[in-house]
């Protein structure tokens, strides 16, 4: 039997995992009570998403993890949430990572005002005004309206490594209705990015 090279094996596993997330044939996927049926698609720079949530105690702030597995990421920490929520966190205080979320309207969520699809970012870290206090978290959430149907793209991008040592580990968690996903993303050089896409 021919064994595919390791890179191809990883790609297949990643694709299989994302396909498992997308198909109702995977019996572990619960039927969302809010009717948000997300279908995930693999990307060339794809992030491997984990669906399992293991409770680790009370909710901790600024780790982009749903520690108590109640479906909400970093609640009680000054972050906003909604039916859609995407959160990243990283340890290196000077490093600039960006969370870029495109909604079906094609607009990237910023911290200025909601996009036409209702997406808004809480803050851009580390930022120029020191408002993140070395607790680097970026959070994009559905600020108004119902979730718009269509394709979403969630990108974690290393903007500026500064003098930090690569790789930078970034925790990403996502809430899509009743579903929760998380991943640990590694970025090694400026402009490198990882992404996942889904369709509502
Ligand atoms: Ca929580
Ligand atoms: Ca947390
Ligand atoms: Ca940033």
What would you note in describing this structure?
The longest helix has 17 residues, at 6-22. β7 and β8 form a beta hairpin. A five-stranded antiparallel β-sheet has the order 4-5-2-7-8, with no helix packed on it. The chain has one helix and nine strands. The radius of gyration is 17 Å and the shape is globular. 8% of the residues lie in helices and 31% in strands. The protein has one domain. The protein is mainly β and 200 residues long. The structure holds calcium ion (3 copies). Residues 96-98, 124-125, 138, 159 line the site of one calcium ion.
| Poorly predicted segments | 8-13, 15-31
The total domain count is 1
The mean pLDDT is 85
Radius of gyration from CA coordinates: 17 Å
Report how far apart the termini are.
40 Å
Quick one: how many beta strands?
A: 9
Strand content: 25-35%
Basic shape: globular
Class inferred from helices and paired strands: mainly beta
Bound compounds, each kind once, are: calcium ion
Characterize the main sheet: 5 strands, antiparallel
Strand order of the largest sheet: 4-5-2-7-8
Question: What is the percent of helical residues?
Answer: under 10%
Count of separate DSSP helical elements = 1
**What is the string of SSEs from the N terminus onward?**
HEEEEEEEEE
């Amino acid at each position: 039997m021919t064994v595919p090279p390791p890179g191809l094996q990883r790609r297949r596993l990643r694709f299989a995992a994302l396909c498992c997330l997308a198909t109702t044939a995977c019996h572990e996927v619960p039927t969302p009570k809010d009717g948000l049926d997300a279908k995930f698609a693999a990307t060339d720079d794809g992030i491997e998403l984990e669906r399992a949530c293991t409770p680790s105690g009370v909710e901790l702030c600024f780790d982009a993890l749903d520690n108590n597995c109640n479906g909400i990421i970093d609640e009680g920490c000054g972050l906003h949430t909604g039916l859609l929520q995407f959160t990243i966190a990283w340890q290196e205080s000077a490093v600039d990572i960006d969370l870029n979320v495109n909604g079906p309207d094609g607009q990237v969520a910023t911290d200025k005002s909601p996009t036409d699809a209702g997406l808004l970012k809480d803050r851009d870290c580390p930022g120029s005004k020191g408002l993140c206090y070395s607790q680097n978290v970026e959070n994009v959430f559905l600020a108004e309206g119902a979730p718009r149907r269509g394709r979403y793209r969630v990108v974690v991008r290393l903007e500026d490594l500064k003098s930090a040592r690569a790789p930078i580990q970034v925790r990403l968690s996502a809430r899509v209705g009743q579903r929760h996903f998380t991943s640990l993303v590694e970025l090694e050089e400026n402009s490198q990015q990882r992404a996942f896409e889904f369709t509502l």
